[in-house]
Design brief:
homotetramer, about 200 residues, mainly alpha, Tetracycline Repressor, domain 2, 2 domains, about 75% helix, DNA-binding
Chain lengths: ~200, ~200, ~200, ~200
DNA sequence: AATGAATGAGTGTTCATTCAT
DNA sequence: CATGAATGAACACTCATTCAT
């Protein structure tokens, strides 16, 4: 995972504060206008610093988004790293999905920008693939025993399930409203569990 | 938006052929570099026409993508308009998903550009919402009776199912290989059917 | 010798004229302000075209100087390619030096910019080395028989003689005034011939 | 131009040492990247001091180069100020050229930067002209009696001879290798002496 | 004396779009 | 219909210099 070099700053607490302001401003600008349309000028205006200061902290616009993505990727990864097995499969899945939905709801703007940036710069596409890959591998792992003899490829099934959750969340279906989130989580849980059960009942054809 | 008249006369007059070449070139350019990065210069170079000619046929770059999207949207809509009810629910779903996957596999590049363009221009986002909305409404309609009393919102469930299919397809999981497509369709069918069955078994909480 | 690609233009006589205007403007701008200080804005203002037009003809500022250098390098090379041997050595040398001085007087501004640019971009330094190398090799060739047994390296002597002529000319000693040029040529001729004769009289020590 | 006081006190107080380090760093940076391309940031990084410290010692980047040039100019001037007349003209010339070559070999990087800076800032061009002028005047003075009645302008001849020596040395022909230097000096001596003798033999045309 | 964060003017370059031929 | 030269607004990025601490 490529850590972006920052030219300077950050050695004092004043610097650290400025960096944080710039990060917030980047998130904001990117949320409102998208990654490509967000100009460095917008960002510095929001942060209340001069143009040059941006480049004290980030090598370029991409580096600022990359830094933003860093946090999101970490939190997303944390969900993957949780223990996923409990006595009650359905409850476990619900917990996992719940965390996933919560993370996405928190970072929705960043994820949307990340998606957009993936169309322009390979780096972002790769980073996205990495994170998704982590999820898919983990889900596939959990699925594998149940799918033996069904003719279903665990990786394919995992991709679809992850896509379902990610898509449902990113397409603006939820925001930070907890009730809405809870509703979505319940529905996703049943779709997931029911789907997986059915997969397990198929016989290789 | 200057639409070339096609009311009468030969179907592939010289002008019509140029328009088609430009459309192909746009698809190609957009597939390789993405919508924003694809320059009009790339397109005309691929089409083998001059710079100015592009603007004889399209008002601007967005219009060319929009024309491309037209075909995709139509074919996508055709799937929605098919009769979805048959004696065997699972078989019907599989047919529908199969068509959906096939359409996506054919138009994957355009869809990716469409997604990307949605981040920049409201028009594309709206058109995407419309098409998705059509799917979601149709699926929700079909789901409604089964979900009565379960506490699940049919629209929410439909969104998730559509997102699953769309996501599985767009994330590069399939290309035009029929066997791969068939495998994916089988898996999606089981996930879909099993998920829906489970939804129907839930009781309002 | 790298020919710089030009993005477009030059296919019509109108384009050719614009290109020439830009080349003239570049020469002028570079003569007045130097290579680094000359802005593309200065050039297009002098040429009376828009900013973007510059980039229709040249990839970047360096390419415009490179094109300018092209002519100079060719004329300089032509002097090298002339026959240098005549019945009267001194007269021949005078002719050669005369042409050299004339070429330099014509292209003094470009050469000064070339020299300056050599400090920034390897490409220009290399091209300069090539041209100088051609001169030095040619002079060394002519000198070789006379220097046998003297312990003098022909290449070293040639470098010094070429440097003398180049330096005398570039350091603003002459402009296009023919009389001045004639005077300088006479003096350089005698220094050159006398120097070479003396070299030939030395004995290896 | 803020000159650090060195009227009294310890010669290498802490401040003096920092100044020296900055001077060395400037020389180094300028040798590697050239005057324009060398950034203050490069200099302070090499010197191991902070950005602001640079400006404690030098008003600006030009002032640092100017300070560097000071030493070179002094040593160059010292050669001019030596007694140039001895019983043996050729031997004297060889001595003078030898010193000149040695000075240039020592300060080659600074001289190249000086040359480059002359294209940007009048101040450096003037200073260069001054130093060159000193040489040329001195040489012309020595040449004058010998050139009476020859129609050669002593100043012109002197310029050419100085250009020969300067050019031969700056164009990378020598470095600090004494043997190479000795060889070059011998060759330059013979070219110089032979050339001057020939000039003296010409008759006004 | 030293630090390093902040400044902002300056400039090269891109590219969608127009329009005379 | 077609051409391709011309346009110019828009932006990212650099770096010498300042100044609060």
């Amino acid at each position: 995972m490529r850590e972006v070099s920052d030219g300077g700053g950050r050695r004092t607490s004043r610097g650290e504060r400025t960096r944080l302001r710039l990060l917030d401003a980047t998130r904001e600008a990117v949320a409102v206008r998208g990654y490509v349309a967000a100009r460095v000028e917008d960002i510095v205006a929001l942060a209340g610093v001069s143009h040059g200061t941006f480049y004290t902290y980030f090598e370029n616009k991409a580096a600022a988004l990359d830094a933003l993505i860093g946090t999101t990727a970490e939190e997303l990864q944390a969900v993957v790293d949780e223990p996923w097995d409990g006595p009650d499969g359905a409850a476990t899945i619900e917990t996992v999905i719940g965390h996933f939905v919560a993370v996405f709801a928190t970072h929705a703007a960043v994820v949307r920008a990340w998606l957009e940036a993936s169309a322009h710069e390979t780096h972002f596409a790769e980073r996205l693939r990495e994170v998704r890959g982590g999820y898919v591998r983990r889900v596939a792992e959990v699925l594998t025993p149940a799918l033996a003899g069904t003719g279903h490829d665990p990786a394919l099934a995992a991709s679809a399930l992850v896509a379902m959750v990610e898509g449902a969340v990113t397409q603006g279906v939820v925001d930070r409203d907890e009730i809405e989130q809870g509703e979505l989580v319940r529905t996703l849980r049943s779709l997931w569990v029911g789907g997986v059960v059915r997969l397990g009942e198929d016989v290789e054809g």
